[in-house]
C-alpha cells in the first residue's frame, strides 16, 4: 500500500462515514489541484522531463484544475451528494484506465514518464477505491 493511502486511512479514521468521505474528496482535490497547477505553470519543463507534449500537459492542467475545484466543492458540502461522488469515482477510474492505455498506445514517455504515469494512475485509482468505500458506508438519506 502506498504511503499516501496509509496516511489517508489514518487521517480519515472517524466514527462518521460522512467525515471520511469528505476527507477523501478533499485529499483528492488537493492532490489533483496541485498536479493541475504544475501542468499549467510548468508544462514545458514537465513535458521534457516526462516525454509528453507540453500542449497536452497544458490542456490536462486546465482540466485537472477545474476538476479539482469541483471535487473541492463536493468535499465542502456537509453531506456530499451521492450522485456527485459517484461521478468523481467514475471519472477517477476512467482517468486511471486511460492513463495506462495512453502509456501503451500513443505516448512515448521518457523513463521519468514511464514511472510517473502508472504512479499517478495508481494514486487516482486509490482515491476512487477510498471514496467508493466511504460512500458505501454512508447511510442513505430518506
Kindly describe this structure.
With 142 residues, the chain is an all-alpha fold. Helices cover 82% and strands 0% of the residues. The protein has helices at residues 3-12, 17-41, 43-50, 54-76, 82-105, 111-137. The longest helix is centred in the last third of the chain and has 27 residues, at 111-137. The mean pLDDT is 90.
Please supply descriptive tags for the structure shown above.
about 140 residues; mainly alpha; 6 helices; about 80% helix; elongated
Set down the secondary structure blueprint.
Layout: H1 3-12, H2 17-41, H3 43-50, H4 54-76, H5 82-105, H6 111-137
Helix pairs in contact: 2-4, 2-6, 3-4, 5-6
Distance between the termini: 36 Å
Overall number of strands: 0
Unreliably modeled segments: none
Helices and strands, in order, run as: HHHHHH
**What is the helix content?**
over 70%
Sheet with most strands = none
Strand content: under 5%
Radius of gyration: 16 Å
**Nearest-integer average pLDDT:** 90
Number of helices: 6
Amino acid at each position: 500500500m502506498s504511503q499516501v493511502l496509509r496516511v489517508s486511512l489514518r487521517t480519515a479514521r472517524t466514527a462518521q462515514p460522512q467525515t471520511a468521505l469528505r476527507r477523501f474528496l478533499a485529499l483528492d482535490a488537493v492532490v489533483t489541484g496541485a498536479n493541475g497547477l504544475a501542468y499549467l505553470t510548468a508544462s514545458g519543463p514537465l513535458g521534457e522531463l516526462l516525454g509528453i507534449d507540453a500542449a497536452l500537459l497544458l490542456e490536462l492542467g486546465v482540466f485537472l484544475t477545474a476538476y479539482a475545484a469541483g471535487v473541492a466543492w463536493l468535499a465542502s458540502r456537509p453531506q456530499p451528494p451521492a450522485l456527485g461522488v459517484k461521478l468523481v469515482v467514475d471519472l477517477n477510474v476512467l482517468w486511471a484506465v486511460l492513463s495506462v492505455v495512453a502509456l501503451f498506445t500513443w505516448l512515448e514517455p521518457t523513463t521519468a514518464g514511464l514511472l510517473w504515469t502508472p504512479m499517478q494512475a495508481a494514486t487516482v485509482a486509490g482515491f476512487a477505491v477510498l471514496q467508493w468505500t466511504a460512500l458505501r458506508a454512508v447511510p442513505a438519506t430518506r
